[in-house]
Amino acid sequence: MPVTVGTDGTEENGKDGKKGGRSRLIKAAGTVITLLVIFFIVRRLLSFRIDYRSLFSGSNVLYIILYSLLFGLNMFVICIPWLTFLRIITGRRISFPDAAWIFNKSNMMKYLPGNVFQFVGRDEIALRYGLSHVDVSFATVCDVLLIVLADVILALLMYWRGVVRWVEKYGGRGLFSISVVAAVICAIFIIVYLKWKRKVRSYLAKLRKLFLNRKAALEVAGCLVFYLVLNTLVSVLYPLVLTHIVGIDVPEGSRIITMGAYLLSWVAGFIVPGAPGGIGIREATMTLLLDGVIPTDQALLGSVIFRFINVLGDFAGVFLSFFLIKLQKGNTHK
């Protein structure tokens, strides 16, 4: 029905009606996606053949709750580098509550098949603040590259003794296996570059401009330090899970290796396309990397339990950010 311009606000009412309808449609779509996410999470967790009743016996419950809350705090603040990139690129002041809420909501979409929806979901910030979708995508690319770089640096520092163990145990086969993994990672990056050459080049050009700005370069360096510290703290949780929940007495000299194995497995689960949330890939990689360090069955059990804690932590991050956004809105109304 065409809108007629008048002095009684008819046009404005029409626009408000369209915006309201669009808002309701977006909320309905969000509800459907949320239900799908919960369905896939539950299905994946049930696919692991372990007796979950044993996890909720004795002190295990307390440790699971504690580690889930700690991981949830990690998810609550992990949006800071992405928020920093958004502010640098757009020059706009974006509130932390909005960024944390959108980041954590979209993070839950990583459990949907495809392993890309968590990045697409971040584009909601563009709609909320009227930002360029290209700028938001660029901020997301920068954030992803930075966290992967931080994880690789930490993993190389922590797991180098694990590489020595592999070489000592398997000789040339160990070096061959490591070379194959490295070649696969390189091949994935080459395929991405060749498939989206124009976009990759435009992003690289923007990165160069970003680092030419001294203030921006210092802020990015600060974000890298932030990721290095945060990822180190998160990696500490895995040997704690092995010790307090699985019941393994992890030797003091092997704790750093287990932390490095977790970080490497995270990178593997992150870069392998199609694996929802890296489920299956991360657990298999962690078990392989800890071969000869701790028993295989216990390493697998520990990785599955840690996955369970990660999922609970993801939900905790959503609830914390939801509480903060509601608190912000309440203060605004007052």
Count of helical segments? Answer: 13
Low-confidence stretches: 1-16
Shape descriptor reads: globular
Arithmetic mean of pLDDT: 77
Q: Structural class, from secondary structure content?
A: mainly alpha
- Give the SSE order as H and E letters: HHHHHHHHHHHHH
Q: Could you tell me the radius of gyration in angstroms?
A: 22 Å
Number of strands: 0
Main sheet attributes: strand count, strand direction, barrel closure: none
Distance from N terminus to C terminus (CA atoms, Å) equals: 39 Å
Relative strand content: under 5%
The residue fraction in helices comes out at over 70%
- The overall number of domains is 2
Outline the structure in words.
- The protein has 334 residues and is mostly helical.
- The chain has two domains: 1-47; 59-333, no CATH class.
- The chain has 13 helices and no strands.
- α2 packs antiparallel against α10 and α3 (80-90) packs antiparallel against α10 (214-246).
- The longest helix is centred in the first third of the chain and has 38 residues, at 10-47.
- It is globular.
From the structure above, extract its key features.
mainly alpha; 2 domains; disordered N terminus
Topology:
Layout: H1 10-47, H2 60-77, H3 80-90, H4 96-107, H5 117-120, H6 124-129, H7 133-170, H8 172-195, H9 197-212, H10 214-246, H11 252-271, H12 281-289, H13 296-333
Helix pairs in contact: 2-10, 2-13, 3-7, 3-10, 4-13, 7-8, 7-10, 7-11, 10-11, 10-13, 11-12, 12-13
